[in-house]
Design goal:
Keywords: Membrane, Transmembrane, Transmembrane helix
Transmembrane segments: 12-34, 46-67, 87-108, 120-142, 162-186
Organism: Rotaria magnacalcarata
Helix content: over 70%
Largest sheet: none
Protein name: Transmembrane protein
């Protein structure tokens, strides 16, 4: 039974792990680039491209996770699919990750396509910002529909999910500012790697990394709740079958 639950939760688990690994990678390379502006651009471009690929994989894993809890875990297969706004959010997340990957690939073309690279990064972060906003809105809508106001899953600031979603938005806003600033510096002063931009990105990396940790804690919470619900359902089924068996035995006497 637990193995079945674990199978459903596996995509979410690995999505969070990949998120954490990816953000550690971004934090390291951004810090190195900030401390050593003359750091080999080819090596950094390769690392950024690898990290962009990591986040494309991460977006796919989060989409698979949505499919698991929104579609596969429905009590009845003819029930309507909930979390539809989160599905749209997954689309934006995949688009944003692909835009970032294109921007990372364009970085190998050096000066000729710097503006295009920054524009693709801008498209990417706008997509990710829309994704994070839709995820938060979808989460609020779902939990407002729930009748229980005292549940630990209710929509309030004690719920760890609201902090995870909020931090994701904050991280995206920081990166949006960094991308706009990078575009401004390139257009006005032809500066490609501004220390101000890198510093903003490092701040965003810290926010994202903490956010990734909180999302993992959310996953742990969901896993425990799902185990508890499944255990209770199994116990209820057991007692119902036991009662039914006893009733039949009494009738046969």
């Amino acid at each position: 039974m637990h193995s079945t639950i674990a199978r459903f939760l596996l995509c979410g688990y690995w999505a969070n792990i990949v998120y954490i690994i990816g953000m550690i990678g971004y934090l390291i390379i951004d810090t190195i680039s900030y401390m050593h502006i003359s750091f080999n651009s080819t090596i950094s471009s390769i690392i950024y491209m690898i990290l962009a690929i990591v986040f494309v994989i991460d977006a796919i894993l989060y989409t698979m996770d949505w499919y698991m809890y929104a579609v596969k875990l429905r009590k009845y297969q003819d029930q309507p699919i909930h979390y539809r706004s989160e599905f749209v959010a997954c689309i934006f997340q995949n688009l944003g990750s692909i835009f970032y990957l294109i921007g990372a690939i364009l970085a190998f073309e050096k000066i000729q396509v710097v503006e295009k690279k920054v524009l693709f990064n801008l498209f990417g972060i706008i997509s990710l910002l829309l994704e994070s906003i839709l995820t938060l809105l979808g989460w609020i809508i779902v939990f407002r529909r729930r009748s229980s106001k005292t549940s630990k899953n209710s929509c309030n600031f004690q719920n760890v999910y609201i902090w995870a979603h909020a931090l994701n938005i904050i991280g995206n806003l920081i990166y949006l500012c960094a991308t706009i600033l990078a575009y401004y510096f390139y257009r006005t002063e032809k500066i490609i790697n501004s220390s101000h931009v890198l510093l903003l990105q490092i701040c965003g990396d810290f926010v994202y990394l903490f956010d990734a940790y909180i999302y993992h804690e959310c996953w742990e919470q969901d896993k425990q709740e799902l185990y508890t619900i499944t255990e209770n359902q199994s116990l209820n089924k057991f007692y119902l079958e036991k009662t039914d068996h006893q009733n039949k035995s009494n009738e046969n006497r």
